[in-house]
Specification:
By secondary structure, this protein is an all-beta fold. Helix content is 0%, strand content 48%. Residues 324-387, 422-462 form the PKD domain.
Length: 878
């Protein structure tokens, strides 16, 4: 059987505990005339989660009626709730894992209105202040936001209209990261052509209704809705990264503009607001747009289905297809792939979970996936693969002026087949008719700004592609000038330079040649402002250039100066020149700048010539250099923790200072002694009076090694013949003493082996770091002349004197203790532990026990890997 992967959920699940509205829509039917009034029956639906049983729909609720073009308020109505019902379902399909419980309340308001004919038509509005919380495709940082639901009644020529009505089933399920399809189809009582598209969900900007506290007290959704809705225009909710009104479920989900069928791969688990608009088109004119707004809950279920995209396009440059089942259900245990060409011949098959194939020749292929053959939940599906490389969508646009036609030209190339379908969306958000199915349409933009033009193209062999291209619509054609204000020294000539598209006209034309070109030449004898007019298909723009005349060049350099040797200096002449030439040029960043950057180590005389057309002027300045005072802070050093460092500085300056990040500071001396607690930098600054006002600086870093935390290991006990692995830590060099039984005394982990019992052997390990800093640690070893054993005392005295205060196991020859447990005489467990040397302190639930006998058990594994088990009794003495 086929398992349809449809998972839309209007209300949040019971566990979500959202307390606000999850969707809404409004539609109407025309019921006839009463005199000059048009009568309509209007239906408003709102949805909320069954997890909000303590909330209520607003009753009554406000409906606003506004002029569709101007937003003028016509009337406000308060309508009583007509009915409320609860609907729910849980899928019992065994091939769906973790099917969610889907449940929500539907509130319905049905009412009649009568309106006079209006050239602009009407828009009906219902608003609530709060949607559900935690919507995944909206920007973080926003609190609860409201919702606006609308429907449109067209103008006078179509006032007897029946609105489009969505007819899709709302009790459906969507599994995250699984493919799905869901019909948002609508019906239309007038037989109008319907065009579907994703559109922005509206918020309630400016709405001052009551706020919606979370989960409290049985009030209406989002407050009492006690105020009329605000007039249009309405504004989009704040979509987050990767989402928009046109892609509310991400770029892997699309809607068919002709059928309203939504298909694709669902995004991750969460709540997503989705709004679908349907345009009613009559005789080629879009007369009204109706909307359905839903918060969809996508759950973590999966469907054991053979699921592929309907089509795969290999119409670019590659003929390789790597495809996997879209379903991620853990119930899928087998796969079978079969690829056929148009003649029905099998060209590829595989039992892998991913099919990977390079098609040898162009053509239309059918791929089939069968899953779970011979197992539970078998399924299969087909998809088409169009292998026709060389299909490249392109278009151009002529014109970019507001209120002037922009001509769009399809330039799509197709190596196979002929382009035969075009779906243009001109990206004008203020209009409802900004679309066309012509190959080379024109469109007149009513507003300026950036427009995201979209073209969907198909060809006759099945290739499809979508192209987005932003374009700027201007209120006038752009003019680019190479300069706007300049100087000239008569009788020289100057060439003006403008760029743009259209016909250029310059004025005044006195002393000008080429007045009808973008690059005329002028030779003014006095200050003159030249105007340039650009005409692009009747779209006009004007700009200007100011030419000022001078009879000489003014130029003055600053006085000679002194700088520190090697420092950069900006040369700053006072001049009205237009061009500059500096010498010498070799130590300037650019010898043609007015204010070049000079870097020199020697005394240098700089000369500059300033030019305005044929007029020039020259000036000079001397830059003298003085060396920095010598500063040497000494070599970096490394010291042990909590020790001193001796610094050694050198200088030829007359005085000096030290600066440091260490809180202990530094004495004012060329050879100070410092004791930093942490690694610190010491900056030595030297000054002199030779003319360089800046100090010479050098830095020495004193690295303080961390305190050594020497560790020799825990005290332990072994038996004769048992190898004991020692493990010291804390440094890079180790020295053990005494050497009794050790395989080495200079490594951190020597192996110890004993041939006689020892009542107490105390090892010392000396640990050193990379700088030779040292610390030591100790450990004790007892060697028993027994088989592996766990020693437990027969009595203990938990009186806090530090002697025999615990009933504890002492392991000898034991690799690890699996458990040590202590019971009362009645079998109550009072202690459980796994560590040698630690045990029960004589307390139960924090209360010290009186004298008595207790039973203990120990299970362990000895050093040979054999199980060890022992039980006994011990007396608690008071």
């Amino acid at each position: 059987m086929r398992h349809i992967l449809l998972l839309f959920f209007l209300g949040a699940s019971l566990t979500l505990k959202a307390d606000h509205i999850t969707g809404g829509e409004m539609y109407y039917t025309f019921t006839g005339m009463s005199g000059n009034l048009y009568n309509y029956t209007v239906t408003l639906k709102q949805f909320r989660s069954c997890g909000t049983a303590n909330r209520q729909f607003a009753n009554p609720t406000y409906i606003g009626i506004f002029n569709r073009a101007t937003g003028e308020r016509i009337q406000d109505r308060q309508e009583q709730l007509t009915g409320e019902e609860q609907i729910s379902t849980t899928s019992n399909d065994p091939c769906i894992t973790r099917p969610p419980f889907i449940c929500y309340y539907v509130g319905t308001w049905v009412f009649n209105i009568s309106l006079p004919a209006s050239p602009d038509g009407y828009i009906l509005t219902s608003q609530v202040t709060n949607r559900v919380d935690g919507i995944n495709n909206l920007s973080f940082g926003y609190g609860r936001i409201g919702a606006t639901y609308t429907c449109e009644i067209p103008g006078s020529a179509f006032a007897n209209n029946h609105s489009a009505k969505f007819v899709g089933d709302d009790l459906v399920t969507i599994c995250a990261e699984n493919s799905f399809s869901y019909s948002f189809a609508a019906t239309d009582g007038d037989g109008d052509r319907l065009r579907y598209f994703f559109c922005e969900a509206y918020l309630t900007a400016g709405y001052s209704g009551g706020g919606g506290g979370g989960g409290g007290g049985g009030g209406p959704i989002g407050g009492n809705n006690s105020q009329p809705p605000v007039p249009p225009p309405y504004y989009s909710v704040p979509y987050g990264d990767g989402f928009s009104g046109g892609s509310p479920l991400g770029n892997r989900v699309s809607i068919n503009p002709n059928t309203g069928l939504i298909t694709g791969i669902a995004p991750g688990v969460g709540i997503y607001v989705v709004t679908v608009c349907v345009q009613e088109i009559r005789n080629g004119v879009a007369i009204a747009t109706q909307r359905k707004d839903l918060q969809i809950n996508i759950t973590g279920c999966t469907v054991a289905a053979a699921s592929l995209l309907p089509e795969y396009m290999l119409c670019g440059n590659s003929q390789q297809l790597s495809v996997a089942n879209q379903s991620t259900s853990p119930l899928i245990v087998s796969w079978f792939w079969e690829f056929k060409n148009s003649a029905g011949t099998v060209v590829y098959n595989s039992n892998n979970n991913i099919a990977d194939y390079t098609f040898p020749v162009p053509g239309t292929y059918t791929i089939k996936l069968a899953t779970n053959r011979g197992f539970q939940c078998p399924d299969s599906t087909d998809a088409q693969v169009y292998v026709y490389p060389g299909f490249e969508p392109r278009f151009s646009a002529a014109g970019a002026c507001i209120n002037k036609p922009v001509l769009f030209t399809d330039q799509t190339t197709s190596r196979y087949g002929i382009t035969n379908f075009w779906d243009w969306d001109f990206g004008e958000p203020s209009a409802q008719t900004d679309f066309s199915n012509d190959r080379n349409p024109s469109y007149t933009y009513p507003t300026n700004g950036l427009k995201n033009v979209r073209l969907i193209v198909h060809n006759t062999v099945g290739c499809k592609d979508t192209l987005y291209d932003p374009m700027e619509i201007l209120d006038k054609p752009p003019i680019a000038l190479s300069f706007r204000d300049t100087l000239i020294c008569p009788p020289d000539q100057l060439q003006l330079q403008a760029t743009g598209t259209g016909i250029f006209t310059w004025s005044p034309t006195t002393n000008m040649t080429g007045a009808n070109t973008p690059i005329p030449r002028v030779s003014p004898v006095r200050d003159t402002k030249y105007y340039v007019d650009l005409d692009q298909d009747g779209c006009l723009n004007r700009d200007s250039v100011m030419i000022r005349t001078v009879d000489r060049v003014s130029l003055s350099l600053p006085a000679d100066t002194v700088i520190c040797q090697g420092d950069p200096i900006v040369l700053r002449p006072q001049s009205n020149g237009l061009r500059y030439t500096w010498t010498p040029a070799q130590n300037l960043n650019d010898a043609t700048l007015k204010n070049p950057l000079a870097t020199t180590t020697n005394n240098t005389m700089y000369s500059v010539t300033a030019t305005i057309s044929g007029c020039t002027a020259t000036d000079q300045m001397l830059v003298s250099t003085v060396p920095y005072p010598r500063a040497f802070a000494g070599a970096d050093t490394v010291i042990c923790f909590d020790t001193f460092a001796q610094l050694h500085a050198l200088t030829d300056g007359t005085f000096y200072t030290w600066q440091t990040t260490d809180a202990g500071g530094v004495p004012l001396s060329l050879d100070p002694t410092v004791k930093p607690k942490l690694t610190a930098a010491y900056v030595f600054s030297a000054f002199d009076t030779k003319g360089c006002p800046k100090p010479g600086k050098d830095t020495v870093v004193v690295t303080v090694l961390p305190k050594i935390n020497a560790f020799a290991g825990r005290d332990t006990a072994v038996v004769l013949g048992q190898p004991l692995q020692l493990n010291a830590s804390g440094g890079v060099q180790y020295t053990w003493s005494p050497a009794t039984g050790l395989s080495s005394t200079t490594i951190p982990n020597p192996l110890a082996l004993y041939n006689r019992p020892v009542t107490g052997l105390r090892y010392k390990v000396l640990v050193q770091d990379i700088a030779g800093c040292a610390d030591s640690a100790f450990m004790n070893v007892k060697v028993y002349n027994t088989m592996p054993q766990v020693f437990v005392p027969t009595a203990f005295t938990p009186n806090g004197d530090g002697v025999n205060d615990q009933l504890r196991p002492i392991a000898a020859g034991i690799r690890n203790i699996e458990y040590f447990m202590v019971y009362t005489r009645w079998g109550e467990l009072v202690y459980r532990g796994t560590q040698s040397g630690k045990g029960w302190d004589g307390r139960i639930n924090g209360r010290m026990q009186t004298s008595g006998v207790y039973v203990w058990q120990v299970k362990a594994v000895d050093y040979l890997g054999l199980d060890f088990f022992l039980t006994g009794t011990a007396t608690l003495l008071r």
